[in-house]
Each structure stands twice: as structure tokens, then as C-alpha cells.
Write a structure and sequence with these properties.
The chain has 142 residues and is of the alpha/beta class. It has a single domain, classed as Nucleotidyltransferase, domain 5 (2-Layer Sandwich), CATH 3.30.420. 45% of the residues lie in helices and 23% in strands. It has four helices and five strands. A five-stranded mixed sheet has the order 3-2-1-4-5, sandwiched between helices. Helix 3 packs across helix 4. The longest helix has 26 residues. It starts with a strand and ends with a helix.
Length: 142
């Protein structure tokens, strides 16, 4: 069964969003939003950003510590994932996002971009990495 997914990199200052193709196999970066207001406002902003797409399921990055434990940001992401589930009624998956921002930085370093351009792309690229990792694990059964 095919499904379209949205991926979220829920950061302290910005929120990166990525979406999958309609078959749920390839993730693409969509947009980076600046966090404004409380979680409910942020959820509305995200839903508006993906409004033109028919999202079946959501993937929210879970920033675990390197030892696998949950820190304060992981707890915020978990609460935000529950809010998205409540707002949409769709399944929401938490996905280990350790090192996704580092990987995004490595990709961006290979390009001929200014620091400002890299900063503007980093969060949506991290969301793409999180979502693609989730999609790949689904197809390989990991």
C-alpha cells in the first residue's frame, strides 16, 4: 500500500519539513519554518506548509542522546509528535534522528554555498534525511 509521509526535524529555533513522493519511497526537502509561538501554533504552521499534499502518516525526528537516552529536546519532540497525532488523526512515528544534522552539514559543505544559504537549507535537509531513513527501514524491514 502506498502512502505519502511528512517528516519533521523539530529544532529549538527552526523546524525542517520534508515530504515523500505519493508512493512513500523518496523523501524531498520542503521548507524550513522559524519557530514562532507555542507548540499549537507551530503545529498549525506545519499543517499549513504541507496543506497542498495529502499526508497519510508523519515522521518526527527523535533527538536521542548518543547513549540512546532521552534528553529534554527528545521529550519536547515526543510531546510535539503527540500534538500532531491529535491535530491530524494520522499515525505519527518517532524516528531516531541522531547525527541527521551532522549528515546535513556534510552534504552542504560539499556545495558552493554561503553560510547563510547553508543555514537556510540545513533543517529541511535534516528532515529529508530523517524521513528517508524511516522510508528505507520500512522497505528493508529494519
Amino acid at each position: 500500500m502506498s502512502a505519502r509521509y511528512a517528516g519533521i526535524d523539530y529544532g529549538t529555533k527552526r523546524v525542517g519539513i520534508a515530504i515523500s513522493d505519493p508512493l512513500g519511497t523518496i523523501a524531498s526537502p520542503l521548507v524550513t519554518l522559524t519557530r514562532v509561538g507555542g507548540p499549537a501554533e507551530q503545529a498549525r504552521d506545519i499543517l499549513a506548509a504541507v496543506g497542498e499534499f495529502d499526508i497519510d502518516e508523519w515522521v518526527v525526528g527523535l533527538p536521542l542522546n548518543m547513549d540512546g537516552t532521552e534528553g529534554p529536546q527528545a521529550k519536547l519532540s515526543d510531546r510535539f509528535a503527540k500534538l500532531i497525532a491529535t491535530e491530524t488523526g494520522a499515525p505519527v512515528h518517532l524516528w531516531d534522528e541522531r547525527l541527521s544534522s551532522v549528515q546535513a552539514d556534510m552534504y552542504l559543505a560539499a556545495g558552493d554555498l554561503t553560510n547563510q544559504q547553508k543555514k537556510a537549507r540545513r533543517d529541511k535537509l535534516a528532515a529529508q534525511i530523517i524521513l528517508q531513513s524511516f522510508l528505507d527501514a520500512r522497505t528493508t524491514g529494519d
